[in-house]
Amino acid sequence: MSTALAICGSPRRNGNTETLLRRCLDRLEGQGIGGELITLSGKNVRGCTACAGCVESKDSSCPGGAGDDFQPIFEKMLRADIIITGSPVYFGSATPELMALLDRAGYVARANGGLFSRKLGGPIAVARRAGHNFTYAQLMFWYMINDMVVPGSTYWNVALAREPGAVNDDTEALATVDRFADNLAWLAGKLG
Which of 18, 67, 118, 148 shows the greatest Cβ crowding within 10 Å of its Cβ? Predict the structure, then answer.
């Protein structure tokens, strides 16, 4: 049975990004794929310092971040079959919290033989007005360089919302995330 992990890069709890990630997980759950949401709000994940400890250690750990919250999240990423990331748009890009996690996770995974290779997943981006396409593309680069499989949907996984809960008014975004989740479940079934 496949498992999914959704990672919310928003520093706000219960915001629009988290709402869409929960919706995606609920849709997967309805198709027999259990999941967990991790929010980076309140967590400390420092950026990569290029110490090359992950290359030298070869044990799927990041010795450069001792004492922060990276390693437990990374271990959940390794166990998941599906990894979904979500970020609000901050000045045309993903949040620094999410990118710190993904940069380090990518380095450790690649230094240890491509640990995310052929896992499924994809990004979700939420913007007040604009910039979600840049953020979506930024996150897609991470999936592609990690040799992951990302299914499509009826549109890009983006939404327009500002106030908490406003994403529920973006019916096209909701339908897009639903189809994305359906495609993840379908693909997991085909590959399982």
Answer: 18
Total number of domains in the chain:
1
**DSSP letter string over the chain?**
--EEEEEE--SSTT-HHHHHHHHHHHHHHTTT-EEEEEE-TT---PPP----HHHHH-SS--GGGTTSSHHHHHHHHHH-SEEEEEEE-BTTB--HHHHHHHHHHHHHHHHTT-TTTT-EEEEEEEESSS-HHHHHHHHHHHHHHTT-B----SS-SEEE--STTGGGG-HHHHHHHHHHHHHHHHHHHHH-
- Where does residue 37 rank: exposed (0-12), middle (13-18), buried (19+ CB within 10 A)? middle
User: What is the rounded CA–CA span in Å between residue 74 and residue 103?
Assistant: 11
Question: How does pLDDT run across 63-98, given as a tens digit for each residue?
Answer: 876 789 999 999 999 999 999 999 999 999 999 999
Q: Which residue is associated with the tokens 């940069």?
A: 103
What is each CA distance from 189 to 14, 27, 82, in whole angstroms? 30, 15, 12
Give this prediction's pTM.
0.97
pLDDT digits (tens, 9 = 90+) for 116-134: 999 999 999 999 999 999 9
